[in-house]
Amino acid sequence: MMMKICDAGKGSLPDRVREFLARLLREKTVQAVLVAKRHPKGKSAAPVLISDPEKLAGADPLAPVQIINAARILVELTKEQPAAAGDKGQAPRIAAVIRPCEIRAAIELIKLKQVQPANLVLVGFDCAGTFDLKRYGEQKTGEEFTLSFLRASADKDREDIRPACRLCTHFTASGADENLCWMGAEDGELLIEPLTEKGQKLLKSLNAKEAERPKGRDEAIKKKRAEREARLSDSPENLMELLEPCLRCYNCREACPICYCKECLLKSEKMGHTPERHLGRAAKKGQIKLPADTVLFHLTKMNHMGTSCVACGLCEQACPMGIPLGRIYSLVGRHAQALFNYVPGRSAADELPVATFREDELPDVEDVKKGSK
Fold first, then answer.
1. Cα gap 276→225, rounded to integer Å
2. Which long-range contacts link 193-202 to residues 24+ away (Cβ below 8 Å)?
3. What's the whole-model pTM score?
4. What is the arithmetic mean of pLDDT over 35-62?
5. Cα–Cα distance for residue pair 42/225, rounded to 1 Å
6. Helix (H) or strand (E) holding 223
7. Residue 56, CB half-sphere, CA atoms under 13 Å: how many?
8. Measured by CB atoms within 10 angstroms of the end CB, which terminus of the chain is less buried, N or C?
9. Where along the chain do its domains lie?
């Protein structure tokens, strides 16, 4: 089922998104919206929490740039649920307008008890990909750039978007409460697809009208998914060589939405060695590379978050050495997820692998054990 909020007017697609969000605030359906807003000089767009509809000017969630996976912000916004004055104990509600990879990360964090979903509305949208920060800053950015990028990307991905985006096959927000749909629709048209009961209630409160599903939408999605799946074979090789430049600066850990441990095993004081240990290892091997254990750092990180990796690729964007971490982690993640028949962020009802025992899991391993007896 598709719904339509903006039935008339000459507004552009971003105009209609802003009007939808303004109605949510004006009619007090939510108390605030989390949405990307362009910097006044247009060189970036960052998540902003907005409660005043007048402040939505410049909001542009479809701008093809991503400085952070906003699921990390949702941890902070939902970690406590204070009662609103005069609201009979109901906590404030926030509508988070975020990308599909951020939706998926948020769902994984809900399972890990890091994001509290009760008073949160997840609003996703069709994502055409993003540029890295430097490349985006080099563009003549602004709303016209966003629109021209979306029009061009509807048929074929630009080759200069981030590598993670060129490999992403989850570019529609299937796990959200609402999905803002533009793929396959007429230019400038905004259709909203409610995907949960919470999403249906929200649109009903705004008196949204039913609309037909665009005839070209399914074909457009199928075409783009096939285009990206064909690139999945372009996987990085020579892991040791690729990780050689690692500084162990922890930028990738800080950028990862799934890394949340307060006491991180990967911190240098926990993985570090005494001078005597370094000298002993150097004496034994003749030489050792410093900083030490860079490969162990990445292997440990992959082991911790591989099954929940949503392949947002922000670890790669954060790496000062240009290591293709997004492609490495997503490759390992795809193999680990396939092993458990698990799709991270698909649904909050899906149980986390490894943390949940299933008798029918890993039958090949059980067969090997029986054969060894």
1. 53
2. 193/1, 193/2, 193/3, 194/1, 194/3, 198/121, 199/121, 202/24, 202/29, 202/121, 202/177, 202/178
3. 0.86
4. 91
5. 30
6. helix 217-229
7. 23
8. C
9. 2-81+89-229, 239-345
